[in-house]
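Pasting as-is:
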Amino acid sequence: MNFWHKTDSDVIFYRCFRHVHFKGGGGTQTTSKNIPAQTANEASLENGLVSYDKSGLNSASGLLSQGIDAISKTYNPDWQNLGSAYNQTMSDVSNGYNDLVNGNLPTGFATARQQALNSDLTGTVGNTISSLGSRGILNSSVTNNAMNNISQNASDTLAKNYSNDLSTEANLLNQKASNASGILTNNATAENASYTQPTSLLNFASQLSTPAQNLYNTMYTGRMNSAGTTTTQNDGGASTWGAVGSVGSALIACFIGKTKVRTPRGYKQIADIKIGDAIYSLDDNDQLCIEKVLHVLSPHMRPIVEADFEDGTIIETTESQRFYTAPWFEYVGKMKKRAFTFSRDRIRLLKSSKTDKHDFVYDIVVSGRNIFFANGIAVEGYGD
């Protein structure tokens, strides 16, 4: 009795990998084994584990779909307009401070103070002259003294009000600058908060797939190791079993928007690539050919890895991206062979480093072998 049931393994393979991004054709494996007959207890246990795996992987797939949908609904402020408005406001505030340093107040302050002073002077002078007249002492000497006193009081009042107006205007300018900064801060907070849900969903999907991966590895390893084996395998990348655990990360193999894609008309940024565009690729004999873009993946925010090559080329990508090393594909963080270039040279990866940067990333599906040239280096496109 065979340990693996074709129906079960096919179902689980579909459940797990229908959303997994496999980069390239992968390697081949030849295995010879003499596996002992399966007991009834083993068959019963296997069926239970397979059922558990199918349930877990199906749930992980559902969470993954929800996470991708949530990414498309994140809040993306118009930073260009917000920045322009902030700069204009701060320029106005700076000009206002310069006026205060030179003793200049906005026209509104001066106009209001002048009107109030004229009104006060008119009433005060009239009352003073009337009072002097009623007391029978209206003469030039007394009147002059009274008017001088009125003038001095008016000057004192005007100076005091002027000082208060300077303080008021300074407070208004401070509040204006604070409000402008608050608008930027609030938008940044809202943007970060909008990524909480999709990030959690993608993490949950990855975590949910782990028990299924471990169970499958346990079943596979335990059963296969119960007999002598002779296995040969190329270095074409992760195996089927390793890929089960990649549900959460497999969909994020992409490049930042300014990455240059080689086309018959020259370079074009990957963010500007459209369905139907003609781009350079490789045929089955690794000869240059022209293929078409079949699909464009929606941009999504991911941590960035920087790949530095010996010819000075720098590519900003994600850690699950694979590069073509002919005849296989290798992940950027595990690349041992030299990468294939547009000029048909082979160049060595000096290092790949995780950065603190998060950015929107893009990927495409290409007809033929699903290969295109990113910054002149052959890479694998997105694909199920």
